[in-house]
Amino acid sequence: MRNQQFLQDDSSVSASSTWTVDWTGTGQSGQLTKTRDSAVNINVGEVQVLN
Question: How far apart are CA 46 and CA 3, in angstroms?
Answer without folding.
Answer: 11
